[in-house]
Design brief:
231 residues, alpha/beta, 5-stranded parallel sheet, 3-stranded antiparallel sheet, 9 helices, 8 strands, binds 2'-deoxycytidine-5'-monophosphate
Length: 231
């Protein structure tokens, strides 16, 4: 294990596998900070859309990245995500962002900037970070790595429910299409594609309740904590 004193939990997996839901619940239980790395790529996507940054304009992208400041601000109920001091937590969950975010997050300069910020966020505190490349690229020395997966039909149904409950006008077919496109782009891109770290523990939650998932990762946390204490 590493010489770090803080404890890092990496949770990776496909879109809409319930990574954030589990990570949030675990962070609350363990009193760890929770960082949703996907929200950072969504924030960059929102900025690029608003400023009409062309995804092949390297110079515009580099300049935009210098102007993008992302903060996680905890309040009594949840952690807000701010882009240049504006709370964009709700805006970045909309479909027009989901439709573009995989293309934006495949850009090398975007990944370099986000990974550097993510590593800084995890340099001192005990944290749980969820994403696609946390256990492979951001924190290859994470103390516990979980790789989440679930049946694509279950994932699409969950995501559809989440969006329609918020009043978004989408069809199940659109959600299925978005998820499969994102899976494909996220797993085949050149820059740190989504893949399971060799030392990650797989959690298939197709048929598990949130409580069962929490119990599973808590057990794994206790084992990893004991291993870290001995190293
Ligand atoms: O977890 P999410 O669906 O909010 O993530 C949005 C997109 O961001 C996802 O399609 C891929 C990208 N992403 C990434 O490339 N690397 C991460 N660590 C997290 C997300």
């Amino acid at each position: 294990m590493s010489g770090r004193h803080n404890f890092i939990i990496a949770i990776d997996g496909f879109s809409s596998c319930g990574k954030s839901t589990l990570a949030k619940a675990l962070a609350k239980k363990l009193k760890f900070a929770f960082i949703d790395s996907g929200a950072m790529y969504r924030a960059v996507t929102l900025y690029f859309i608003r400023h009409e940054i062309a995804l092949d304009d390297q110079e515009a992208i580099e300049n935009a990245l210098k102007d993008i400041h992302i903060d996680f601000i905890p309040n009594a109920i949840k952690t807000e995500i701010h882009l240049n001091d504006e709370d964009i937590s709700e805006e970045i969950r909309q479909m027009y962002i989901s439709d573009k975010v995989s293309d934006v997050s495949a850009i090398k300069a975007v990944r370099l900037a986000m990974v550097a910020q993510q590593q800084k966020l995890g340099s001192r505190r005990n944290i749980i970070m969820d994403g696609r490349d946390i256990g492979t690229t951001v924190f290859p020395d994470a103390d516990l790595k979980i790789f989440m997966t679930a049946d694509p039909k279950v994932r699409a149904a969950r995501r559809y429910l989440e969006l329609t409950e918020k009043g978004e006008d989408v069809t199940l077919e659109e959600v299925v299409e978005n998820l499969s496109t994102r899976d494909r782009i996220d797993s085949t891109r050149a820059e740190s594609p989504l893949r399971q770290a060799e030392d990650a523990i797989v959690l298939d939650n197709s048929n598990l309740t949130p409580e069962q998932q929490l119990h599973f990762v808590e057990e794994e946390y206790l084992k990893a904590k004991a291993a870290k204490a001995q190293s």
